[in-house]
Amino acid sequence: MSYDALIAHARQTQALAEVAGRLGWDQETVMPRGAAGQRAEEMAAMEQVLHARRSDPQLGDWLAAVTPADEVEAAQVREIRRAFDRATRVPTDLAARIARVTSLAQGDWAAARAADDFAAFAPRLAEVVALKREEAAALASGGDLYDALLQDYEPGATAADLEAMFGALRPRLVALRDRILGAPQPPALTGTFPEAAQLEMARELAELFGYDLSRGRIDTAVHPFSSGSGADVRITTRTDPADPFNCFYSTIHEVGHATYEQRVDPAYALSPIGRGASMGVHESQSRIYENQLARSPAFAKWLFGRMQAKFGGLGVDTAQEFARTVNRVTPGFIRTESDEVQYNLHVLLRFDLERALIAGDLQVADLEEAWNARFFKDFGVKVPKASLGVLQDVHWSVGLFGYFPTYTLGNVYAGCLYQAMAADLPDLEADLAIGDLTAALAWLRPRLQVHGALRDGAETLRHATGHPPTEGPLLDYLEAKFGALYGL
Predict the structure, then answer these.
(1) Does residue 272 have a pLDDT over 80?
(2) Neighbours of 152 (CB within 10 A)
(3) Is 482 exposed, middle or buried (0-12, 13-18, 19+ CB in 10 A)?
(4) Which InterPro entries does the entry link to (predicted)?
(5) How many percent of the chain have pLDDT more than 70?
(6) Whether 79 is catalytic
(7) What is the pLDDT of residue 16?
(8) Domains of the chain
(9) Selected catalytic residue, list 47, 135, 254, 340
(10) Which own/partner contact pairs does 214-220 have at CB distance under 8 Å and 24+ positions apart?
(11) Distance, CA of 299 to CA of 205 (rounded, Å)
């Protein structure tokens, strides 16, 4: 009886959360700019309702009385208890204030990014940081503030553990980058890439990678994202007339997120385990789709033919050269456009800066200078404007502190998954060379995607691959792939 009551309450709460998520999707895609103030009030009102449901004292009574009958029920109860414990520590008025301020901050960030004016955004960001520090203090109960926020995205992870993993990644990544940059570089694409044609091909790629458009849609946004679960999972992408890869790989990345949500067991729909296991696991799906599969030399062969048919001349003569162009390593400024070798260095920069912000060791007023100094140290180039630096990502404006490290954790998880997939699928490269993702997608679903949040992040990977996650497979994959592409 207690379990049935818990699940009924949780399903209704999740249904309301999906409505709130749709408000966020609308704000990023089609909402009129003049509606920002009203939308902030709407988001705050929804958050108050959700917070009240998640912290309802009746949940505590049901949790105390429940005895799970099997693994699924135990996982559902685990997730409900986790949400209840966190919600009861955060005052309702604080949750509403965070929702209101971050909704306003999202618009302020977009305007400041367009104007390349961090100073205009800094006061609002300072509000967000102060509220997230207040929330972290309520959650941490005297413990580490950043660790408390990290639990929203990767339950069980600690900043210390991530720092150790990232410390192991950095030396080999930097060494590989330096060797690549010392080798002859492939050409960039040239040609004409109209927006309409890019979006047509983005749709083709989305369906090729398993995205069910009868339960989803593709729109454009400043910062690509995926939203929703189950029967309504939407993605966004963006276009650049000079760089179609931006559109295509952003789309494939978001499709990785979206198909994970679409492929969770329908029996778990609108329940606590009816979504991805963690943001690290979620990111593993977007990264293995985007990188190990879609940026593979084999798939590049297929993509080369499709792009020639769609756009004509590309400024690259052969499929082999095109594969190198797809995997160009250049010291660019934008994380989402970064190559595989340097991507994690972008994430490590953000991880260190946001930890300092939450700890109070770095003030928002000093953030742009700190960003630029760290970027020069890590990449050897000066940031010319804020939109290419501290204002490029939306995450901090919407309060997602603790989210950034899950991008690199997702790459680590993807490395482990791909190692296991390649061992099980001897014809994988031949399939990719003809644009056939059937076997790869069929491998992922029963081992990982269908289970949703049945297990936590690390255990989800252990179940899928047979061993605990470690950074070794990712580094080995990168060194082998780029060593072959660049003749190192």
Answers:
(1) yes
(2) 18
(3) buried
(4) Peptidase_M32_Taq (IPR001333)
(5) 100
(6) no
(7) 95
(8) 2-150 (no CATH), 159-486 (1.10.1370.30)
(9) 254
(10) 215/262, 216/258, 216/262, 218/251, 219/29, 219/30, 220/29
(11) 12
